Amino acid sequence: MILDLDIGNTLSKWRLKDADSSEIRSRGAVWTREEWRPGADIPDLDVVEAVRISSVARRAVLDETVALLRQRVGSVHVARSTPEALGVTNGYEEPERLGVDRWLGALAGYQLAGGCCAVDCGSAITIDFVLPGGRHLGGYILPGLRLMKESLKLGTRNVAIDPDSEAEELLVPGRRTVEAVNHGIYMAAVSAINRVYAEVCDSEGVALPLLVTGGDARVVSRGLQVPHAVWPDMVYGGLEACFPLTAAERAGRMAGAPWVPAPVGLEKIRAGLAFSMLL
Q1: d(CA 241, CA 251)
Q2: What NCBIfam families has UniProt attached to this entry (predicted)?
Q3: What CATH number should be reported for the domain whose range is 2-78?
Q4: Per the annotation, does 123 bind a ligand?
Q5: Which spans in the chain are helix H?
Q6: Are both 2-78 and 100-233+257-278 of the same fold?
């Protein structure tokens, strides 16, 4: 089995992948911690032959995790943000400072779509652009839905927006304080993504495929105005592309990769952008 770990500042996700069939056998999530308990926090390591890690947590968390895993598993791969990988050139002036989850998402999106806008809707919402040809432009970071709620100092009670909510419900004025807050932060998030996507596509002269991941991806997806694909395992896809361990991965197939709809034409994006600027 292959254990994939996506360690965030707050939540850490894991999945077990069959090394022979490349099928996903199980998955889970726990609060990020410095001391992991195999069999409780993560699967029993007796069945694991290799581990791949993406981590944006504090260095101590990563170091302790790697030390534990290397005592029990023969092969441990840790992803790093680099100046170039898999045909993509990192757009940061200091490439190592780009969050590795964003870098892996950009790499996965490029392998899948040959240029993309990769949006991760987690604690923060990150938006990264990779042009056809592999030039990563850099990106944007804005507060996620929960952080926006916390910034209003109203606590986190009732922060969760039902992922099955229709965008029409979330974009109308709220008639209770909780509704007003939830609808406001939703409007802020989807409006920012829609505008940033249109502005960058306009300035670069290319309509890019749009890929969305992260814990709030499903609900944010409902408010996006252009064709897109939701890819929950996008960071894992980057790990697979960087460290291919199965026959399917070596052939370029990433588990759970979605069908990506063709983007709308650049003229339509520009027309929508021009109209919004008139309002």
Answers
A1: 10
A2: baf (TIGR00671)
A3: 3.30.420.40
A4: yes
A5: 59-72, 100-113, 145-151, 167-170, 177-204, 217-221, 234-242, 247-250, 266-278
A6: yes
39 pLDDT more than 90:
no
List b or e across 135-157, with b for residues whose CB sees 16 or more CB atoms inside 10 angstroms.
Answer: ebeebeeebbbbbbbeeeeeeee
Task: Yes or no: say if 239 and 104 are a contact pair by the CB < 8 Å rule.
Answer: yes
Integer Cα distance of 17 and 27 in angstroms: 9
Q: Does the predicted TM-score (pTM) go above 0.70?
A: yes
- 20 marked among binding-site residues: no
pLDDT in tens, 218-245: 999 999 999 999 999 999 999 999 999 9
Which class would CATH give 100-233+257-278? alpha beta
Candidates 127, 164, 123, 125; CA nearest to 146 is 123
Nearest CA to 177 out of 159, 201, 191, 162 is that of: 159
Catalogue the long-range contacts made by 196-199 (C-beta closer than 8 Å, 24 or more residues apart). 196/127, 196/140, 197/117, 197/127, 197/226, 197/269, 198/269, 198/270, 198/272, 198/273, 198/276, 199/273
Is 32 annotated as contributing to ligand binding?
no
Task: Report residue 117 as tokens.
Answer: 């806008």
Is 92 labelled a binding residue? yes
Q: Is 101 annotated as a binding residue?
A: yes
- d(CA 196, CA 199) in angstroms, rounded, equals 5
Tell me the domain boundaries of the chain: 2-78, 100-233+257-278
Is 200 exposed, middle or buried (CB count within 10 Å of its CB: 0-12, 13-18, 19+)?
buried
Those residues whose C-beta lies under 8 Å from the C-beta of residue 157, and which sit 6 or more positions away, are none
Annotated binding residue at 115?
no
Report the catalytic residues: 101
